[in-house]
Write a structure and sequence with these properties.
Blueprint: H1 2-13, H2 19-35, E1 62-63, E2 66-71, H3 76-87, E3 110-118, H4 125-133, E4 137-144, H5 150-164, E5 165-166, E6 169-173, E7 178-179, H6 181-188, E8 197-204, E9 217-228, H7 229-238, H8 250-265, H9 271-274, E10 293-294, H10 300-311, E11 322-323, E12 332-333
Length: 337
């Protein structure tokens, strides 16, 4: 109410000689009022990035080829999926070494980052026990778990990965995603090390009223995408400038930040998408040949079965390798060439 009284007062006392000054003050007050409205979401992590807590990790630049960030949660099923990830697909020795042909050992280095926010009652004892045995769980006490927290967990992972690790690529996947490591690694060693942002990328067309002013831009869907280190650093610098922008979908937000970086720097980051080529496709209902990840695996037992199916044969030996996890009678598909 005080703001509106001030506006009325300024409108009354403004004379022709003070029009410009009065309008400037009015604009400032209007902006302040709008930004204080409850429908503008605050940024839950301070922009300076100094309020991080990292468990079981040294603040040092460990050199790895890829950082794989996986937003996760403090639940029993997510814990089982994390363990399945460690035991199965993330261990490159579990894959057929012939599928890594041409990939030097210097590229087979990576760092897992399971990023977890706190629950309403803090972190469970089971999770804290898991932390004591594994160096890949990153707890973020500043974030309370919720459906709108994914964006902030990914931004946290990007900032912290730059601080802790020397890497070439940052790979973000969902917790219900399984990566086909040989396919991904064979693709990454051929990709540019700079100005790179790739995945299953789409043109965003405004549909929701709250997103209309964002314009049209490419973004890579959140099941899995790859970002080169230089672009990650630019995203980390860009994020605090848009702390009050209402984009709840993490993949859309990352694509929009990349779009802003391109506009300001007048450089092209997504060279492949500009040519309309999807170099990193992904599969939904089944695991198809040449795709680097499978998404929407909600059960750790299914993830184990998908991995077993995929590692039974060399993909190149199949006419069309696939895994249909909705059909229990015919799940693993590999008709021989």
């Amino acid at each position: 109410m005080a703001r509106w009284k001030m506006l009325k007062f300024l409108l009354k006392v403004t004379t022709k000689s003070k029009v410009l000054v009065g309008l400037a003050v009015i604009n400032v007050l209007l902006f302040t009022h709008l930004m204080s409205k409850s429908d503008i979401e605050p940024h839950p992590i301070s922009p300076n990035g100094n309020n991080f807590e990292v468990n079981q990790q040294k603040a040092m630049k460990d050199s790895v080829f890829v950082v794989i960030a996986i937003p996760s949660m403090d639940t029993a099923e997510c814990s089982k999926i994390r363990q399945s990830t460690r035991n199965r697909w993330i261990n490159h020795t579990n894959w057929n070494p012939l599928e890594y042909e041409g990939v030097g050992s210097e590229f087979l280095t990576f760092q897992l980052m399971f990023v977890i926010g706190r629950g309403e009652k803090g972190f469970s004892e089971a999770l804290q026990e898991e932390v004591s045995h594994h160096g890949d769980v990153f707890l973020v006490p500043e974030l309370t778990e919720g459906e709108d927290m994914l964006r902030y967990k990914v931004m946290w992972a990007m900032r912290r990965s730059v601080e802790l690790f020397g890497f070439s690529y940052f790979v973000k996947i969902d917790h219900d995603t399984l990566i086909d490591l040989p396919v991904l690694w064979q693709a990454l060693i051929k990709r540019p090390r700079e100005h790179y942002y790739g995945g299953n990328c789409l043109i965003r067309v405004p549909k929701r009223r709250s997103y209309e002013n964002l314009g049209v831009f490419y973004y890579c869907q959140g099941g899995g995408y790859v970002v080169s280190r230089d672009v990650v650093r630019q995203i980390v610098e860009e994020d605090p400038l848009h702390a009050r922008v209402i984009i709840k979908h993490e993949d859309l937000y990352v694509g929009w930040l990349v779009h802003n970086i391109e506009l300001r720097s007048n450089t092209s980051i997504r060279t492949m998408e500009e040519r309309g080529v999807r170099e990193f496709p992904h599969s939904r209902e089944d695991f198809r040949q040449g795709y680097w990840f499978m998404h929407w695996i909600k059960d750790h037992e299914v993830m184990e079965e998908v991995f077993r199916c995929r590692t039974m044969v060399r993909e190149s030996e199949c006419q069309e390798f696939g895994f249909d996890y909705e059909n229990p009678d015919n799940q693993c598909l590999c008709p021989v060439k």
